[in-house]
Specification:
Layout: E1 6-7, E2 31-40, H1 65-78, E3 80-84, E4 89-93, E5 100-103, H2 105-114, H3 116-132, E6 141-142, H4 154-172, E7 179-180, H5 188-196, E8 201-204, E9 209-214, E10 226-227, E11 239-242, E12 251-256, H6 259-267, H7 274-282, E13 292-300, H8 311-325, E14 329-330, H9 333-339, E15 344-348, H10 380-402, H11 409-415, H12 417-421, H13 425-435, H14 442-460, H15 465-468, H16 475-495, H17 500-507, H18 520-528, H19 535-549, E16 558-561, E17 564-576, E18 579-590, E19 596-607, E20 610-617, H20 621-635, H21 640-651, H22 663-691, H23 693-701, H24 708-734, H25 742-755, H26 765-782, H27 788-804, H28 812-835, H29 841-852, H30 858-867
Parallel strand pairs: 1-3, 2-5, 2-13, 2-14, 6-7, 8-12, 11-15
Antiparallel strand pairs: 3-4, 9-10, 9-15, 11-12, 16-17, 17-18, 18-19, 19-20
Helix pairs in contact: 2-3, 4-5, 7-8, 10-14, 10-16, 10-17, 14-16, 16-18, 20-21, 22-24, 24-25, 24-26, 25-27, 26-27, 26-28, 27-29, 28-29, 29-30
């Protein structure tokens, strides 16, 4: 438990969060203001062909890194705990409501898709901060997919800013005032683009400033410049930066975060204790009696919870406890700028970033930044050159072919973000109608979308992470090459232009540190080309999976396979002994480019892991009927070899097997195919356990370790029994009529497991347990009860047995549900009952239940006792 967020367990403590409903009066800044900025970002990880993130083993036990970091950081910051010294919950703080933040569009898209509750908490946090701070929300925008802006050409700079702005407005409902630059990489050309797009301010590292001075005024038209190139700039004030065009009307305001504190947040223990954190900020306050000053710090948002576990609690209590106690105002950059306009001017260094001491060479040269001992970074320059070459070639393709479809191809690209945010057919048609030069045919619509997707991937291939680390074959480098491969493929589809050979030749100049690869060309061959997905592969995936998915009515013949819509035109399945044969006619449509193919498939399951699947284009009903007839005739001979021979004659040599399925479906089928064997083994283990229960118990009674084989049998048997009881309990909760004594059985099993020192497999059981507790609590809080005390006792027993089984059950979701209900229903209704001298026994029971959930309800229980 993080001591940083614990408070004394005193009954008089009143956790009052800052009032977010009353805006601070707009007046000149006075006193100390504090801004903590979190740069929340994950690179796009989706397979370019599937528009989905595939399983990433390194993120285990989670599906992928987004999911893991979400569990450790993004969700905990939306529901940050404030605890007392007994570890009981005092308050839940939405940290996004108090911190300045940017969340990369690619990450926000993932959150919107995978945890809409957290996504809405983030949007709500920005709305509340707007209400509190005179319309200036905590959220700022980000250049779209984290490219290094000084290394981008002018057109790409503008598209990145425009996509970032449009994505931001579509989510937060307002125009962004500030924008976060990837790696805070900046040059004056980037500033010009930001100013032209209406961005008011940016945030930089102190090392990026060159010199500063008082803003010229009537009294002093040419103040003296102060050189601050060694990170010596005063970060407690905003600065005005004028563009190099000589005009005093073109400028952007810049905040420089406090470098030493920000570094300590990432690399020391300063954020493990809220008092220590506040003390560190207090030490940065200037004692020169200036009217106002801003102490601003900035770091990767993932620091809070992912890199440093539990520190979201530190942040929460700093916002609602430590900072207000010091008399500091928690604010954001936009609000502070509105009450404290710059009185100083700054000039920045020519080309800089916050994570490279050599300008922006980390993303183009062997500068040493991000390297590993004994490894070179010589691959960076050839990789940058190869992608720049490809970008320029794709630009020519886009301009030549784009003008056949769009009135203004580059305007269409800038506004394509509207389609990226909403790919519904109605929205895509609306977009095409807006930009088309004439009414597009179906094939022209496909080519128009292919061109736009080509440009999207041409931008994604410059995502900064590809150069950030020590080796090109890492997932980040491989990912940007996959975007390049997809862009190449789309260019070939539209223009018939084959650029891949020349691209690979350039990649061969980028040496890898891994001997088995040699260079980036081999990385491309081994890790990129093997990940490409064709329509035939999608059809093969669909065909094999269809054997296990069950079949539907003729009116329900449409399914989604990642970003493809699969429509069955015909499907027949027959079994002959151990053989299963399915033949079908399938129409596949890409939901991204609207490409379409009609395909015929035949899949033979020989039993176990053996599948033989063939695909070919649909060439008419007559041809399809003949194929189907010949295959099912061959099946009648009950010879797998004969059926495969006929399939080869009809479809050709290419075939697909279980290995060709996409990983998620392959793993699902592997589990299904293993189930019969596992069930048989479970029965054997259970019988072994029953037959040897006495001897196993005797070993433990005498303090001896039971033979491993018998101990394993006991753990598997008890795990299976636990699962069966939990499923029965689930049914009990769903259908109260089916009540039984399953909770008592579970308690007996927990006792048995404890005596035998058995560790129950927690992977699935823990999750089911937490869901059962959550559902039981929801029913208890929302349904009427004949015997509330009995229902509460039942919930308490369920929680207790979860702890007895040592499953690591967490009550966080249940605490959130209870805490919301406590403040919105239990306490108001209890206050009403006390005022009107009504029976309060129900509320006393509900408050006491909070203790079981580790929520501090002592103050209200004491008040209730005194009121009687």
């Amino acid at each position: 438990m993080n001591s940083a967020a614990k408070l004394p367990a005193t009954t008089g403590f009143d956790l009052t969060l800052p009032d977010t409903s009353t805006p601070e009066p707009l007046k000149p800044a006075a006193g100390v203001y504090v801004t903590v900025h979190g740069h929340f970002y994950q690179p796009p990880r989706e397979n370019p062909y599937l528009d989905a993130i595939e399983r990433q083993p390194g993120a285990a036990p989670f599906h992928d890194w987004n999911e893991r970091i979400h569990h450790e950081c993004y969700r905990p910051n939306a529901f940050a705990r404030v605890l007392n010294n007994r570890g009981e919950l005092l308050g839940i703080v939405n940290n996004y409501e108090y911190m300045s933040f940017n969340i990369g569009p690619t990450l926000m898209s993932w959150l919107e898709r995978h945890d809409v509750e957290v996504y809405q908490r983030i949007l709500e946090a920005d709305r509340k901060s707007c209400e509190r701070l005179n319309g200036h929300g905590n959220a700022i925008a980000q250049v779209y997919n984290h490219i290094i802006m000084p290394l981008a050409n002018e057109r790409d700079k503008y598209t990145q800013i425009r996509w970032g702005k449009a994505d931001f407005k579509s989510r937060f409902g307002r125009d962004p005032e500030g924008m976060w630059l990837a790696e805070t990489a900046v040059d004056y050309a980037t500033l010009e683009a930001l100013v032209a797009e209406g961005i008011k301010f940016i945030v930089l590292a102190p090392s990026q400033a060159q010199r500063c001075r008082f803003l010229p005024n009537n009294e002093n038209s040419d103040p003296e410049w102060h050189e601050v190139g060694g990170s010596q700039i005063d970060p407690t004030r905003p600065y005005r930066c004028y563009l190099k065009d000589g005009s005093r009307n073109s400028y952007i305001d810049i905040f420089f975060y406090d470098g030493p504190i920000s570094r300590d947040m990432g690399f020391s223990d300063v954020v493990f204790n809220s008092n220590h954190f506040a003390g560190r900020i207090a030490a940065a306050i200037r004692g020169d009696h200036r009217p106002a000053q801003l102490i601003s710090v900035a770091t990767d948002g993932e620091t809070f919870g992912h890199h440093k576990a539990g520190t979201e609690k530190t942040l929460a209590y700093a916002f609602i406890g430590e900072f207000p106690r010091q008399g500091w105002t928690v604010t954001n950059f936009a609000h502070y700028l509105s009450i404290n306009q710059p009185t100083w001017e700054v000039e920045i260094k020519p080309v800089t970033a916050w994570s490279c001491a050599h300008g922006v060479d980390r993303w183009q040269d062997d500068c040493g930044c991000g390297g590993a001992p004994g490894w070179h970074l010589k691959w960076r320059r050839p990789l940058r050159d190869a992608l720049n070459w490809l970008r320029d070639q794709l630009t020519q393709v886009y301009e030549k072919h784009g003008k056949l479809f769009f009135r203004d191809p580059w305007l269409a690209r800038d506004e394509y973000i509207d389609v990226m945010r909403d790919r519904t057919p109605e929205n895509v048609r609306r977009f095409l109608q807006t930009h088309q030069i004439h009414k597009l045919s179906a094939s022209e619509q496909v080519d128009a979308l292919r061109l736009l997707e080509m440009q999207r991937h041409a931008l994604l291939m410059f995502t900064s992470c590809g150069w950030f680390f020590e080796e090109i074959s890492r997932p980040e480098g491989t990912q940007i090459l996959r975007y390049a491969a997809r862009a190449l493929e789309l260019a070939g589809d539209v223009a018939g232009l084959q650029l891949e050979k020349s691209f690979i030749k350039r990649l061969a100049l980028a040496p890898s540190n891994i001997e088995s690869f040699g260079n980036a060309a081999e990385v491309y061959h081994q890790l990129v080309l093997t990940a490409q997905v064709s329509f035939r592969q999608v059809a093969g995936h669909y065909a094999i999976a269809s054997l296990f998915n069950g079949h539907h009515s003729a009116t329900d013949n449409q399914k989604h396979v990642y970003c493809y819509t699969a429509t069955e035109q015909d499907y027949h399945l027959e079994r002959m002994g151990s053989l299963t044969l399915a033949v079908g006619h399938l129409t596949l449509v890409s939901e991204i480019t609207w490409e379409k193919e009609d395909l015929v498939f035949a899949v033979l399951h020989l039993g176990g892991w053996d599948f033989h699947c063939c695909i070919q284009p649909f060439e008419g009903r007559r041809s399809y009927s003949q194929i189907r007839e010949q295959l099912f005739t061959a099946l009648q001979q009950a010879s797998a070899a004969h059926v495969i021979v006929v399939m080869t004659q009809l479809f050709g040599e290419q075939s697909f097997s279980l290995q060709n399925l996409f990983a998620e479906e392959r793993h699902r089928l592997m589990r299904l195919l293993s189930q019969e064997t596992l069930t048989r083994l479970d029965q054997l283990y259970t019988q072994t356990y029953r037959d040897n229960y006495g001897i196993i118990m005797a070993f433990h009674r005498d303090g001896l370790a039971a033979p491993q084989e018998l101990q394993v049998a006991a753990e598997i048997a008890l795990g299976q029994r636990c699962m069966a009881i939990l499923k029965a309990l689930e049914q009990e909760i769903t259908e109260p009529v089916a009540s039984g004594n399953h909770l008592s059985e579970l308690e007996a099993l927990a006792t048995e497991a404890k005596h035998l020192q058995c560790k129950i497999d927690t992977s699935i059981i823990k999750k089911i347990f937490e869901q059962l507790i959550m559902r039981s609590l929801w029913q208890l809080l929302h349904d009427s009860h004949d015997d509330l005390a009995a229902d509460i006792k039942r919930l308490e027993r369920l929680i207790s047995v979860g702890h007895q089984l040592n499953l690591g059950v967490t009550l966080e979701r249940s605490q959130e549900l209870y805490f919301h209900h406590l403040h919105h229903r239990i306490l108001p209704e209890c206050a009403h009952a006390v005022t009107h001298q009504q029976d309060t026994s129900k509320y006393q029971q509900l408050l006491q239940m909070g203790q079981t959930l580790a929520v501090d309800v002592t103050p209200w229980l004491n008040k209730l006792t005194l009121s009687k």
